Amino acid sequence: MEQLLASLDALAAEDLAPLFGPALLDRLGRLLVAQNRFAAEVARTVREAEVSGAAEVDGLKTMTSWLRGHAHLSTSEAARVVRAGRALAHLPAMATAFAAGDVTAEQAGLLGRVAEPEALALAAGQGVDLGGVDTVLTEVAVTRPHADTAKAVHHYLDHLDADGPEPDPTEGRRLSIARHADGSISGRFDLDAVGGEKLQTALESVVQSGRCAGDERTRAQQQADALVQLCDNQLASGQLPMLRGHKPQVLVKVGIEDLVDAATGAGAAKLGFGATISAARARRIACDGTLTRIVMGPDGKPLDYGRSVRLVPPHVRRAAEVRDGGCVFAGCGAPTSWCDVHHLLEWANGGQTSLDNSALLCERHHTKVHHGFRVERQPDGRWRTWRPDGTEIRTGPGRTGPPLPAAA
């Protein structure tokens, strides 16, 4: 192990800058093989630790829980490692390819489903040649893309229990969310085919409706924005289940000095689930929110609190929806149900909550306007949009010439 770690230190010390394409790819290929071999040794060691009850040394019952707590693996990843370790004894072809670095850790976890107790019992009852299955599936894993391995394993398991009861699709659904130091989150989810189809259909409807001129977002960014938009729509509808006796809403706590200050104010506001954001982001959220004044004492305890006031009353919002018909940012046109009511002059800086001081903006373009872009309504009723550098964003055939005349 000491020699291995020393070799890794030597690799990490290498200067990669002089290398070019072929040399880098060759190095990467060898590292990936080594990574697979490392994963095979991890799985083999985890299996021996499971058989010997090694987790008990640290006061835990299972290696899955040990991997979660001591190795900081996610629940799904810890289960995959344990499953791959258990499969080594039943799938020798896979074990050999795994140890040689020809099969990835993720593929080994997939093939490990074939060796789970229930699948083994069904195979034995039907006289299935598990050695042949092992050989065929390992060949697929070594020679074909990952998706083909998943399809082959599912095909085998479906036919193995073709007469069994239809499994409950909800049992395999998983969603885990990890919060990072800056308040952002990342996660992993597993959905059955129907659940996945529902999610993709819902996201795609928002993605396609939200496309606008000059959209340079990647597909991944579009889908992430669509997911946030779906959440916005549900929160705004008021039809979600009650949460602690109140309608669910995004909570932001920020000091009045930071709220009225035009500076960014990094780390000045705190969200309901504990994340910290800047005062600038808090001001954007407050554009179309409900304000509650709370006076805090020197010991951090509330001394007084005022009545919650909706900054944009319903009649102003309805009027803005009728007037604007959707997001007014040039080239967008997202529907009114996706939009916040933006104060052209921030209310914290004296701007009135009135129709004349309001503009409908979708979440993405509302953020843009709070980061230097500007929208302005002309006397003829048209909206115009400017970039932070002062140039105007124009759309349509005349975008390189003077503004087009207003429609009659």
TrEMBL record:
Pfam families: DUF222 (PF02720), HNH (PF01844). GO terms for molecular function: endonuclease activity; nucleic acid binding; zinc ion binding. Residues 381-408 are annotated as: Disordered. InterPro entries: DUF222 (IPR003870), HNH (IPR002711), HNH_nuc (IPR003615). Keywords: Endonuclease, Hydrolase, Nuclease. Residues 315-367 form the HNH nuclease domain. Residues 381-392 have a biased composition (Basic and acidic residues). Belongs to the Rv1128c/1148c/1588c/1702c/1945/3466 family. This is HNH endonuclease. It comes from Geodermatophilus obscurus (strain ATCC 25078 / DSM 43160 / JCM 3152 / CCUG 61914 / KCC A-0152 / KCTC 9177 / NBRC 13315 / NRRL B-3577 / G-20).
